[in-house]
Design a protein that fits this description.
Helix content: over 70%
Structural class: mainly alpha
Oligomer: single chain
Number of helices: 6
Distance between the termini: 86 Å
């Protein structure tokens, strides 16, 4: 989680705790943590809040984990879009890698197909000229 997200979750924990008239000590007791840990969650000092802690906090505050993590429907939709964009980018990257591999194979095959034409168009005339030069030198 980035710092902004962690801070928002912390703000939500604080707002919900205050709304439910719970002290940090009471919430801490409900989730089996220290009061200082609750404050650190609320202040965003703990960057990676364990999933188990999020579930415990949500249960203690009588909200769903989704409500705790994503306060509004708009934020939830933004996160869904971000996830969809990341998935689309990953799919596009895999397709580009496949396309690059296919292009390399095509170029190797083309190179092999073009060898006779290259020989006919470039080397054969050069060999003929060399033959004529050698014939002229012999005479």
């Amino acid at each position: 989680m980035d710092e902004k997200t962690v801070f928002k979750i912390g703000q939500r924990i604080n707002a919900l705790r205050t709304e439910k008239n719970l002290s940090a000590e009471e919430l801490a007791a409900m989730i089996g943590k220290d009061r200082s840990t609750v404050y650190r969650y609320e202040n965003g000092e703990i960057q990676d809040i364990p999933l188990a802690a999020i579930l415990d906090i949500a249960k203690a505050l009588k909200v769903t984990p989704t409500e705790l993590i994503c306060w509004t429907e708009k934020e939830q939709e933004r996160i869904r879009l971000d996830i969809a964009k990341e998935k689309a980018a990953a799919i596009l990257l895999r397709q580009m890698e496949k396309d690059e591999e296919a292009f390399e194979v095509f170029m190797k095959e083309k190179e092999q197909r073009d060898r006779p034409a290259f020989f006919k168009e470039n080397l054969l005339p050069a060999l003929c000229q060399l033959g004529q030069v050698l014939a002229n030198l012999r005479n």
